[in-house]
Amino acid sequence: MTTAITKYLVGIGRTVMNALWRIGIGTRFLSLILLNSGISFSRFHLTIRELFFSGVMSLIIILVAGMFVGMVLGLQGYETLKRYGSESALGSLVALSLVRELGPVLAALLFASRAGSAMTAEIGLMKVTEQISAMEMMAINPIARVVAPRFWAGVFAVPLLAAMFSVMGVFGGYLVGVVLIGVDEGSFWSQMQSNVDFQHDVLNGVFKSCVFGAVVTVIALFEGYDAPPTAEGVSGATTRTVVESSLAILILDFILTALML
């Protein structure tokens, strides 16, 4: 009995120490990215290329998901507001839900699933094929040449994708609420305009998106750079990227929302 308890406690301690070690290494990895970010701006075409890969190539899923989320919000919001005779407030309900929470969170989750996993797999395969080692042998800093442009591309891409997600969501809510159900169009837009505040709603959503973009991209790049150079190692790193990014987004969303309120 004592031996089983000891093994259990040792396992917990090992898990905690490994988690703390990975947090420390990840923080050091982020500091190296920031210190070696000069090439990302002096040779901005590297960042633009990665921005196209991570942002533009994720645009279709963002737009489609945003529109259908807005349509669902329109349906559910109308049914709820109808009970209280407040159907005219549908526009503000849809807009505030998207701008404050759903836009940044869902856009970041979709970005992590599509672009984050792709970044991890790409850098992991570069390790498998020894491209990272070849750069180091040629005195090329792989952090500056490979990692930093991808980091800044993710930081720039997520706020833009979240904004497009919110715009398409509002359009989807308009289609369902005004075109399909018959809510007054003037009330829909006027309520939205009067209740959505630029500073407290829009800017807070943009700030959340920037934080989510930085965290998701760092996790994806770190998992790829730290992945064992095997097929199993790369696949495991890709899975960890999606899981860790999703949990980080949801936890940070609660923390940021509590601080902003």
Written overview of the protein:
The chain is mostly helical and 261 residues long. It has one domain (36-260). Helix content is 88%, strand content 0%. It contains 10 helices and no strands. The mean pLDDT is 88.
Keywords summarizing the entry:
single chain, 261 residues, globular
Range of strand content: under 5%
C-alpha-based Rg, rounded? 22 Å
User: Percent range for helical residues?
Assistant: over 70%
Which descriptor suits the 3D outline? globular
Q: Give the assembly state of these chains.
A: single chain
Order of helices and strands: HHHHHHHHHH
Question: What's the arrangement of secondary structure elements?
Answer:
Layout: H1 2-35, H2 38-42, H3 44-54, H4 59-82, H5 90-128, H6 131-137, H7 142-181, H8 185-195, H9 198-226, H10 231-260
Helix pairs in contact: 3-7, 4-5, 4-7, 5-7, 5-8, 5-9, 5-10, 7-9, 9-10
Summarize the entry for a quick read.
The protein has 261 residues and is mainly alpha-helical. 88% of the residues lie in helices and 0% in strands. Helix 5 packs antiparallel against helix 7 and helix 5 crosses helix 8 (185-195).
